[in-house]
Amino acid sequence: MRIVVYPGSFDPPTNGHLDIIERAAALFDRVIVAVAVNLRKEALFSVEERVAMLKEATLEWDNVEVDSYRGLTVKYALQRGASAIVRGLRVLSDFENEYMMALMNRKLDSGIETIFMMTSKEYAFLSSSAVRELAELGGDFSDLVPPCVSRKLVEKFSARWRGREE
Length: 166
Ligand code: ADP
Known about the structure:
By secondary structure, this protein is an alpha/beta fold. The longest helix has 19 residues, at 147-165. The protein has a five-stranded parallel sheet, with helices on both faces. It contains six helices and five strands, in the order βαβαβαβαβαα. Bound molecules: adenosine-5'-diphosphate.
């Protein structure tokens, strides 16, 4: 069975992430979407909220599972029996970071391959941070994220939007 881990912050999950998940699910027997617990990075949504949103957004794919993990991605991937890690590539500026991370992961374990998927062009400028910023400023994010994420963002920010109108 070919298993791939798709690690990330997913704070929050976007349609760009779902596009990568859908395409990975067509290539691998099993995709494990794994929310990385990063104590250094302050997050908008808790790990539990992110896992719940991803679970709801990926219900339609039988071979996609959602989990969270702490520590080294390579170690987690090995524990889960994965042969590869998948990451998405958007604009050129993603490349340097992703390249360094892939090389470091290979040094840690050469048995785990990192594969990159190019974003679909409609999502090339879509990122979780852009969605967070839009939500904060009261912009329309409804076509950038799945409906369950849209609902959570409205829940989180509506009091703030009201405060601004008053
Ligand atoms: P991280 O904080 O680990 O970069 P993210 O949640 O921001 O986590 O992203 C997880 C992965 O998904 C990364 O490989 C990132 O490049 C990719 N990704 C994010 N947004 C998109 C998008 N719009 N299209 C394709 N890949 C994306």
